[in-house]
Amino acid sequence: MDERATALAELGARCAGPDVDLLTLDVFDTVLVRRVSRPIDAFLVLGHRLEPLDLLPHGVTPAAFARLRRLAEARARERAVAEGRSVEISLEDVYAEIADVTPEVRSRLADAELRVERSLCFVDPAIVEVADAARAHGCTVALVSDTYFSASQLDYLVGGRLDATAVFASSEHGVGKGQGLFDIVLDRLDIEAGRAVHAGDNEHADVAPAERIGIRAFLLPRVSGALTDRMVDEGLGLDSPQHPAVAPPRFDVDAGDHGLAGLRERAVSAASVGDDALAPYRVIGAGVLGPVFAGFAEWVVREAVALGHGRVYCLMREGALLAPLVDTVAEALGADVRAAPLWVSRHVAVRAAIGGPDEIDEALLRSFLVRRRVPTARALAASLGVPVRRIAGRGESDVPLDDVMLANRVVARILADGRARRAIATAAAEERERLARYLGTALHPDDREVLVVDLGWNATIQVGLERALARMGHPRPVVGRYLATTREVVGPALAGVRTRGFLVDAGVPEGDGVAIVRNPEVLEMVTLPAQGSVVGYSASGEPQCTARPAPAAQLAQEAAVRDGISTFATTFLRSRALHPELGLAGAAPALRAILRRFLARPTVGEFAAFAGWLHEDNYGSEAAAALGAVDPALDLDYVSADDLYRLPQHWWWWPAGIVAGRAPDLAAGADAILDGRPPGAVGEDHRAGWRVALDVESSLVAGEHLSTEAITFNRSGRALVRHVSVVHAPTALRWRVPADREVRVDRIRTVFSTRGRPDTVVDVQLPDDAWTSETDDPTGVRTLTFASSRLPDGHVYRTESVCYLSRGPGADRA
Question: Taking Cα atoms as reference points, which of 690, 642, 689, 700 lies closest to residue 666?
Fold first, then answer.
């Protein structure tokens, strides 16, 4: 069990017993949670609040004031000691150190700091519950703090949300908790040490001095080291080597960190209860994904209110998490908004949107080919709702349509065959009729617009649903609110489709958008129920779903992550009940940082927790692969940071996760490159104009020359180049590499895709007789020619070849 959760439980039990008459509580980081990661970060907020009031000393910027304020406090303590007084000082003493301002201005500065502190503090509801329970059992409750604030100022900061009998501040008594303040508390309240308990967040300032005089003390630690490290990496906190007055990179000068540090600490503590194997999943849900989803849910509710919508429809399957979360947040906010699940998938929405035979054109048909894995003709036919014989020959049914000539032939056959187009249109009309029956029960008849909510990406379901509704004769605008959307939503927006993304909107900010949308699988899976994707509806309109391939252990882990998300939401909403000003809808930059760090720079433990999860292809396909799977074509030693987000998705689902354990610098470098930093800035060797080409010849069709315009060697001096040719029946393959004496070709892996046969793979370390090498000195090019005897029999329609290169002295072989 987590140390904080254990201590809170024991503290509550002790105060409920007959042996305790007094509960003393530390104030900061115990009773009060700050909306900044560190106390000194409040000084920067103060500086920005003082600027429009014209209260900053002459020539001092808000950032400089943060440092000035910190130095003033240090000088005030030094002066007090030099004058023979205690090191304990008041807020007024601090501002007395600032020269060239009047006493009136000093007083206004102190008042402004107090107001800023109150705006940045909120009471921990768990502590309020302990204090209320203690009072109910006859205990006196007192606050004790080592601080420059006075007792009345502390009382103002707490804001009456914790009914303390007395408040003891070190600034008023001249001693801190470690120098006798606890003795003063016991004397004033006339209570024996053995009948008192104390709780605080600091071993040295709270536990040790209390127990030294016989008070039973409970340590309520702020946060685990792992969460602290994550917050530093997110840019929401600072590590100790950095200057203490420098604000975190993602710092909000108005709202600090929105209370995220304190909320996450408490949620992680609650989620850590129990030593079972699912605890790590609850912790990730509470500390990482919980803030993101809770903020998204609050934003959705506020958007619904602004749009005048009393209902939102959460697209399934993600709605299994989102709908109850939106409902919970709406109730806490007092908003008249209710969420309902809507069982519509991309597969059925796009098919139901198809019109008559004459409206079926090439662009529509090719849109069905755009998937993570290119479909076969049989899979395409299933998506269109027609028998495969309508669109392809018997021997072509199970050939992937990355066979460009076959894909062209299939599309052309459909366009030229009126019966095929009528069959597709008929299937779409039948799908639409069944969908209409479902929507008749799922959508409220009074909704003139339909507000859909989903994780997002391209708004494909929204567009398809709006078109389907129009074809049903019940046209209604469909409005979309998403966690993130790509630039692909811009086209529909031109046609009047209304979408908005919370963290990323139309692919902006670009670096965040790529990091999130390229690696969305964990986000998708933690929202899912046990059912698979919707593939259609029964005659009565009941959704028909596939079976999910996820094993029972994965489903339990997904549920544990959702439990953690719920724990964070509960923690946040409990605090917000006491402090309605708390909110996460305006915290998108901080939440982006949290999510981006998790997806683009996960820890080894985070990736290990999810590596075995099976992710489905969807779009009517039941294919699935583990998140940690890596295609045999990919040798991770040759991947550069510049490559990480460019390599094909079917090679690996979660690139940053896969490299997290073996090359964390690679993931960090790739993340930096997403924000525009050049490869050289992360220690890589980027060679512009360095062409590595693959020439493919054929006796049937024109040949192909594929070439890079640049190449990047990673920090270990390795690189890879991938070319894919769709030239049919190749008769010759030649790699052309600059004849650089420091660069060698280590390996070439070539995959030939042949109709009706398994792929032929030729994967060799060079030198090897599969490739002969010669150098043309006048052109400075080394040519590696594939042995014609190794070309496969049959009709090759696609060739993928990957060349692995190394840089180093004496590398002019192969």
Answer: 642
